[in-house]
Amino acid sequence: MSQEISVAEEEVVKAYGWAARDSSGVLSPFHFTRRATGNNDIRIKILYCGICHSDLHLAKDEVGMTIYPIVPGHEIVGEVTKVGCNVTKFKVGDIAGVGCMVGSCRSCNNCTQDLENYCPKMVWTYNKHHEDGSRTFGGYSDKLVVDEHFAVQIPDNLLLQGTAPMLCAGITVYSPMRYFGLMEPGKHLGVVGLGGLGHMAVKFAKAVGAKVTVISTSPNKKKEAVEQLGVDEFLISHDQEQLQVAMGTMDGIIDTVSAPHPLLPLTELLKTNGKLILVGAPIQPPELPVFPLILGRKLIAGSAIGGMKETQEMIDFAAKHNITADVEVIPMDYVHTAFERIAKADVKYRFVIDVANTLNSPY
């Protein structure tokens, strides 16, 4: 028995990252282990990891579900350093991406339809447990071991630091835009909020020739939205005159805002049969304006990331159209300042940690 344990200990992968230990959300160096690289696994040296707003929420346990210690990060790009004997999708030296999930049951109705993101047993990249009971730790760390099924291939022409956020922010908007038929030439898409998710929605929509209107509380974002991102129209969400002119003009709206806000003015911007898709997640439940929905046969729906097949499709689409996120690359020790700035929406449009060059892993 002792011999088996010693072998297992030799196979365990020593890892190093930054973790929060309590609801202060303060991150500090943390030594932990990853599982041994299994037959279907790849081991990744993490190069970059994006910072999602949910990292801040979970580090501080603002939704009451955090398991401490927690190593955040689910927008991961890295170099494959080891592959299991059954791996066919990757070889050593390839660049791989890992997003919000690292496991699912692989057999339920959702999984068999490439919708692992809706599997009841889906395993988040961090703050969850694997089937064997071990903890998942995220990408604010030096390495990751993951089943190849839950990693995507990153094409050579994509800037890696700008690719990392697409594994959460990108797929979160791409999936509903595809599913609800909003990524088509000539469609008129509204995008609520011009942050990490919103600017990706704009880029994807413009790439297919859609008309894009951004709806924002921040007038100071208009110039960059129009001149840099190619937005067609820019509405201030509290300007009733602007909203009145735009009523009934949009085929669909992607709402990326996680702060509390009214939905009624947004439903009024939709055409008959229009769709309001919620991908932001306000903790406070919104009021549901039922009567306007009935009169316009309008739809309010939600969407959560995407399955692995669709995530690879999104990355390939981005490579074809030379799309990456607009990012601010930061060192690991800037993360607390980044959290503070994210809370104030002071970033264009995503922070990305230069893990490989600034984590200073001892392993």
Automatic annotation (TrEMBL):
GO terms for biological process: lignin biosynthetic process. Keywords: Metal-binding, Oxidoreductase, Zinc. GO terms for molecular function: oxidoreductase activity, acting on the CH-OH group of donors, NAD or NADP as acceptor; zinc ion binding. Its cofactor is Zn(2+). PROSITE patterns: ADH_ZINC (PS00059). Residues 25-353 form the Enoyl reductase (ER) domain. Transmembrane segments: none annotated. Belongs to the zinc-containing alcohol dehydrogenase family. This is Mannitol dehydrogenase. It comes from Pyrus ussuriensis x Pyrus communis.
